Every structure is written in structure tokens, then in C-alpha cells.
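Regression check, PMT case 409:
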Amino acid sequence: MLKGKTVVVGVSGGIAAYKAVALCSRLTQAGANVRVIMTEGAAKFVTPLTFQSITRHAVYTDTFDEQDASVIAHIDLADRADLIVVAPATANVIAKMAHGLADDMLTTTLLAATCPIVVAPAMNVHMYEHPAVVENMNTLRLRGIRFVEPGTGQLACGYVGKGRLAEPEQIAAYLEQLVMENEPPKLLAGKRVLITAGGTVERIDPVRYITNDSSGKMGFAIAEQARRLGAEVTLVYASVSEKLPEGVELVRVQSALDMMDAVLERFSDTDLVVKAAAVADYRPAEPAAQKIKKQEDELTLRLVKNPDILAALGQRKTKQFLVGFAAETNDLELHAMQKLQRKNCDLIVANDVTDPLAGFGKDTNVLHVFDGNGPAASFPPLSKHEAALRLLLLTAERMGCGRPAGGNE
Ligand code: PMT
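Current build output:
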């Protein structure tokens, strides 16, 4: 993923600067065009010549040392960068970034950059936990800057705690993932993907109904990411509160029975189904044709079971790959595995809807994916878009997408 990408590595002044050499080596080996900027402090720990030898490019240390008179170095570098990573990032450079200071080559370049920026902090544990540093990092997070968390262990200062620069391979893997998210490969090209989203609406009478809290965000995110991965997408959606995604076929339904019809009608032509919709398990047995009038003190509503759409697909599937969702409040794995087996899914995605970062209506989700053998992947709290992409990349891999036809690689 990093091949041909211009990655600017900003090295600031901490003992972990030596690890940035290994990071540059990894990135260079991955085919990236690596440009290094060192702060004055960094150059006291490692010489610019070390980075120059690894990257085969002159190292930037001074804003006023213009190597090419036809351009202004920090603007040119910021414009050409596909990605900037500051590793190690000291408390000082983090503070400068948070406050928009630009008094050296690294901070002027960071201020001029429009590409994604990743920060890998390294410092003493008390500095890392200092409210000023915590606040500065939060400010940067809110601006979209991403962090590779430091590790915990023996620090150069003698303390044991959090603050050790993440390992170079971990930082490199994070950068690969980021590039993948920004420019996902067209792994689902030529595939027909059907997604369901939202909460079904089960009518009681013309003015009342039973539904649930699904906003459609999760299903919409999956539909959008499937389109980015090159798929032809049909989105069957019920009650939603979000803006509809573009570039996909939209099929609006109301009840579980409507959703069942819409999904079954398209199933034979479909390669992948992802059922993110929250389908009502029961519906009123006799929806009233007219508004029910207030009469007695009690009103009993008789409900009958809805068909299980996913289970029906599980019974009928031939070539189709089936991904179900499981909204759970307890015993995630147990319930998810039972659903996977009962509904004959290839993967099931459990989300704990009591988690403040997961479930109905939230912008984030925490997905735990299971296959027939048990846990297949767990993702940290992510925006629903990022979570959807991770889920689809895993699904595409399981479907064998991107492999040569008939190949085993
Ligand atoms: O829409 P958001 O606000 O973003 O919220 C996302 C979500 C919480 C709705 C989503 O992440 C989620 O968990 N969707 C599944 C909700 C659900 O109905 O879970 P379940 O455990 O009751 O059902 C298991 C699976 O069977 C689901 O894939 C469901 O679509 C399917 N099902 C359920 C009942 C039924 N009669 N037919 C079905 O197909």
C-alpha cells in the first residue's frame, strides 16, 4: 500500500529518535519515498547522515536551508506528502502542533500540510499523563490527527510506565492501514452486494407502529464502503434517520415482511449479503385498518412472529456469502455463535449495544466478528465508516476476492 507514496517522517528530540531510523528503513523497503525532517533536538540524538543513508534523500533540519531555489521547501514538502508521521513526537512538538506554532522546519511543514498526519508520542510517563499534554492530544484528535499509542514498559528515564515509542513495525502497519482506508483496493469489483439497514416498521394502525432505535448509520456505512471497494450495491432500508448514500441502488421498505420480499427477490443474483438491519421479531397480528380509539383502561396487542429473513437466506444460499449482525447486551460470543449456526451465516458481527461507543444511533461501533470456528477478528472502537471498511476487507478476504481465479494464494 505504501509503494510510491511520499511519506514525510518528522523526527523530534527524544532518545526514541533512534527507532525512527528503523521506521524509515521499513517504509523505504515498502517502496515509499521517505523524506525526513529533524528538529534541532533530534539531531542531537541521531545524525542526519544516518537518515540520509537509509532514505537516500537529503534530510531537512533548517527552514531557511533551501535546497532547491525554485520552491519553498516546507510548502513543497507539505504539498508532495501523501502522509506525514511524527515519530517520536515529544510533548513539545505536540504542544506546538496543538497551538499552531511554526518555528522550525517540522512545525512549518505540519502547519502547511493537508494530507493525513499521524503522531507517535514518546516521553516520560508523567509527562504523557500531564493534563497539558492530554489536552493537547485531545485537541489534535478533534482536528483529525491520528495517534499511534505509546507502549508501556521500561522508559529511558528509568521509570516504568506508558510513554515508550510504539515499535517501528507497529507504526508502519498503522500507516499501511491508513493508506488502505483512504484508497481501498477494488476488491469487490464485479460483485453484487446487498445490504439491509434501519429498523423495520410494524404497523398497529394507520397512525401507530412498533419499531426500534436503528438509525441506518451502520448499514449505510457498509453500503458506501462496499461501493468504494468496487461492488454494485443494493441497499434495502427500512426506517432510518440518516442521509441516504449515493451511488447505490436504493430500495425502501417498511415491515419485516416487505424486507423479506425485497431481499428474496434479489438473492439469486447476489454474491454477498450483509444484514445490518434491525428486524422486528414480532408484528401486530391484526393491524387495524382504522385508528384504534381510546376505550378501555387496558388494551392488549397480540403479536405474531415475523419470519427470520437471514435464516431464510441461510437455507437457500448456494454461492452467496452471508454476513449477519447480532445486537447483544450480554454473553456476546455465545449468542453470536448460536445465531451464526442457526441462520447458517458465513460470518456474524456482534456488537454490544450497551457499550457507549457501540450500537444503535451511535457514530462509532465496536465490532467482534465470528466465523464457524469462533472469534475471527475484533476491531477497536472506530467510526462506523472505518468499522465497515475493516469488516468488508475481512469479508472480501474470506470470499477469496482479489485472488487469481482458481488460485490458492
Ligand atoms: O442502524 P444503527 O443505528 O447504525 O445501529 C446499528 C445496529 C445496532 C442496528 C447494527 O449494528 C446491528 O446490530 N444490526 C442487527 C440488529 C438485530 O436485529 O440483531 P438481532 O440479533 O436481533 O438479529 C440477528 C440477525 O438476524 C441480524 O442480521 C438481523 O438483520 C437478522 N434478522 C433478525 C430477525 C429477523 N426476523 N430477520 C432477520 O433477518
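Comparison notes: The domain at 192-399 is CATH 3.40.50.10300 (Rossmann fold). The chain has two domains: 6-182, 192-399. No diff flagged against the previous build.
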